Amino acid sequence: MATKRITAVILAAGQAKRMGSAKQLLPWGQTTILGQTIKNIQQSNCTDILVVTGAKHEAVSDVAKEANVPFVFNPQFDTGEMLSSLQTAVLHLVPPPDAILVVLADQPMVEPAVYNAILSPFEMEKADLVAPYYENKRGNPVLIGQAYFDELLELPIGDAPRTILTRHHEQLYQVHLQTDTILQDLDRPEDYEKWHAKYA
Fold this sequence. Notes:
The structure is a single chain. This protein is an alpha/beta fold. It has 7 helices and 10 strands. The strands form 2 sheets. Strands 1, 4, 5, 6, 7, 8, 9 and 10 form an 8-stranded mixed β-sheet that branches. A two-stranded antiparallel ribbon has the order 2-3. The radius of gyration is 16 Å and the shape is globular.
């Protein structure tokens, strides 16, 4: 079976209004939240990584450069939400990979083994849409195969990538995991304090 090219697209363009500062750049161990997220992906079976920047572009891109990871700027970061960042990434990835793994920059708690569990159904040619679940709640990251890229690019402003998962729920492969890290992100200062104390 040929090795499939899977690019982890890290969405790091947000303004983090609820956090009050650029959460991607907050300290996490010996690095930053974004830096740890990159490290975890680099230890997984993903073949490539692309960081999408927006707010705090220079500082965020510096983290990517330090990790020797490419990045692309989303000019609509302040209005387009997550969808515009993902569309920016897909348009940038030429030739397109076989699939993208949509990663939130503020999930440094997600370990390499979790990434690999999500990649596995696609690598084994069982599904082109894969999402992790914990206690029947869907989390992140999610995998979207190349077959859905055109549909993703056609979603209108104000929509969200989860629309693809909802439209094609019968094709969605569910990976049930024993960790709730897939449900967590660091939106508020109290989230950061709680998970930083536990993991960093």
